[in-house]
TrEMBL record, chain A:
PROSITE patterns: FBOX (PS50181). Coiled coil: none annotated. PANTHER family: F-BOX ASSOCIATED DOMAIN-CONTAINING PROTEIN-RELATED, F-BOX-CONTAINING HYPOTHETICAL PROTEIN C.ELEGANS. This is F-box domain-containing protein. Pfam families: F-box, FBA_2. Residues 3-51 form the F-box domain. It comes from Caenorhabditis brenneri.
Automatic annotation (TrEMBL), chain B:
Signal peptide: none annotated. This is Skp1-related protein. InterPro entries: SKP1, SKP1-like, SKP1-like_dim_sf, SKP1/BTB/POZ_sf, Skp1_comp_dimer, Skp1_comp_POZ. Residues 26-88 form the SKP1 component POZ domain. Belongs to the SKP1 family. Pathway: Protein modification; protein ubiquitination. Probable essential component of SCF (SKP1-CUL1-F-box protein) E3 ubiquitin-protein ligase complexes, which mediate the ubiquitination and subsequent proteasomal degradation of target proteins. Regulates cell proliferation during embryonic and larval development. SMART domains: Skp1 (SM00512).
């Protein structure tokens, strides 16, 4: 094999070479020895400071996603048989490139923990967690992640099968500070403490387990709950609580899906003003324009359009 | 050595002085001489500053000895100047801060660097010493490309990286070289251990 004495190059040249490597190559270089790891880390700490961030990524395979804002490199471990021990696949979507490296292993939990350790050492704290809970290792994964750090900015949790206990374990052990998205199946009789201080957004797909008091304690800017078991009276209480500045002081957008045959009662005897159609924040993708309709006013003068 | 006796290498037809184009003469550490155009020299920050400081006229270039570049051999310097002549007049690239750093290797550069890794290693050192930013970029990119698709074990072989054990052994050897008594003490310690002694002292 054609070789070159890498460590005999000037350090600034080594820095240049390393700066041209993709995250997979950085990881593999760091795996060679303690010394090569120190070099990669030193360069990441100086030249690449904060230009990469790492998310934990759990699907059928386990691994980490290293991202630079535009492109993502998924370093994964799989126990499924793949043609070679390393399988590289790449796709480009809307100018962003997503590259997957799947490594075959007989013990993906152990290897996942090792790659998490390495990525944490190299790139710093994880930013987010993207976890499909249709696996048997959820609690071990959560317990392990808690040993690395207790707080993450974002999470996306999903499952097809019922995973209420695992979601509960997740939310009880890991703090999520900015964005929570949970589309895992959760039965309505489970008692889960929702994170109240999520700064930006909360989305929950199966929300029947959420009680009114829990909902009123949420402080996020955007809240979106699907399939709740809230009643007309609950919705009315939510609006009145907001108007009295008793809850949701930071709220910018709220969407609640609930079963009701008639919603007329909700605004009964609540002072409303007729508001014009207006353009909504482009980030709130589902509804670009708010239709003409009733506005409710908060004690401090802030208004909100109610769309039923 | 006079110009007549020096093995002059015409790097590029375009580099041969025509009309009033300024050129300079350089000599490698193995006494090979090169004529390089002023525009090509601008690719090298080091050489550009050097010739500016010297303030040579065309007559000086002919009458004075070639400028010696003492730590680069002729084979390497030929590649360097071929590259500079080909890319003369091009803007010096500025790092845009992207990660990973994006560098394309043009076809000419790829052919120029189609050399054994020993010479590539020297070319990189030369590009670094002469501060030729884009040549350093493309040669570093070639080295970075060697890592593509490699496992850690393969990378160890490609980059000749020592293992932890080898690093430890080298460290011990370096310490012992500094303090010869350390080796004697260690051997004595090992010998006592073999004899079943509990304490060294």
């Amino acid at each position: 094999m054609n070789s070159i004495p890498f460590l005999r190059l000037p350090f600034l040249v080594i820095q240049d070479v390393v700066s041209m490597m993709c995250p997979f190559e950085l990881i593999h270089l760091a795996k060679v020895s303690k010394r090569s790891k120190r070099i990669v880390k030193a360069i990441l700490d100086t030249q690449f400071h904060k230009k990469y961030h790492v998310d934990v990524y759990i699907s059928e395979d386990y691994g980490t996603a290293i991202k630079n804002g535009k492109n993502s490199w998924y370093y994964m471990y799989t126990s499924r048989r793949i043609p070679t021990n390393y399988l590289l696949t790449e796709q480009t979507v809307l100018g962003s490139t997503i590259v997957f490296l799947q490594n075959f292993t007989l013990n993906k939990l152990d290897d996942f923990q090792r790659i998490c350790d390495l990525c944490h050492d190299l790139f710093g704290d994880f930013k987010g967690i993207d976890i499909n809970m249709d696996n048997t290792d959820n609690q071990s994964i959560i317990d392990f992640l808690r040993t690395k750090q207790e707080s993450f900015e974002d999470c996306e949790v999903c499952s097809i099968s019922e995973r209420g206990d695992d979601v509960k374990h997740f939310l009880e052990n890991l703090e999520i500070t900015r964005n929570v998205s949970i589309s895992a199946q959760i039965s309505e009789d489970i008692n889960i403490n929702l994170p109240e201080n999520v700064e930006n957004s909360i989305f929950i797909q199966h929300s029947k387990f959420i009680k009114l008091e829990q909902f009123l304690a949420l402080k996020s800017k955007q809240i979106s709950l699907n399939s709740t078991k809230f009643t007309n009276q609950d919705i009315r209480s939510i609006l009145m609580s907001w108007m009295a500045t008793e809850s949701h002081l930071n709220l910018e957008r709220l969407r609640i899906a609930f079963n009701s045959t008639s919603t007329e009662y909700i605004l009964q005897n609540i002072p409303i003003e007729d508001g014009d159609e207006f353009q909504m924040d482009a980030r709130l993708v589902e509804l670009r324009r708010a239709p003409r309709g009733p506005d409710i006013r908060r004690e401090d003068g802030k208004k909100a359009r109610v769309i039923l | 050595m006079s110009v007549e006796n020096a093995p002059v290498v015409d790097v590029d037809e375009a580099a041969i002085p025509v009309e009033k184009k300024m050129y300079y003469r350089f000599e490698s550490n193995d006494k090979k001489e090169f004529r390089v155009s002023e525009l090509a020299i601008q690719q090298s920050e080091t050489l550009n500053r050097l010739v500016e400081a010297m303030g040579y006229t065309s007559e000086d270039v002919e009458n004075k000895p070639a400028i010696a570049i003492e730590n680069i051999d002729g084979k390497t310097l030929k590649l360097v100047f071929q590259w500079c002549e080909h890319h003369k007049g091009e803007a010096i690239p500025v790092d845009d801060g992207s990660v990973p750093k994006i560098v394309e290797i043009p076809e000419f550069d790829a052919k120029l660097m189609d050399i054994d890794n020993g010479l590539l290693f020297k070319l990189i050192w030369a590009a670094d010493y002469l501060n030729i930013v884009q040549l350093l970029n493309v040669s570093c990119k070639k080295v970075a490309n060697m890592a593509q698709g490699k496992t850690p074990a393969q990378l160890r072989r490609v980059y000749l990286l020592p293992s932890d054990e080898e690093d430890e052994a080298a460290k011990r050897a370096a310490q012992e070289a500094q303090d010869p008594r350390a080796r004697e003490v260690e051997e004595e310690f090992e010998e006592r251990k073999r004899q079943g002694g509990n304490s060294f002292f």
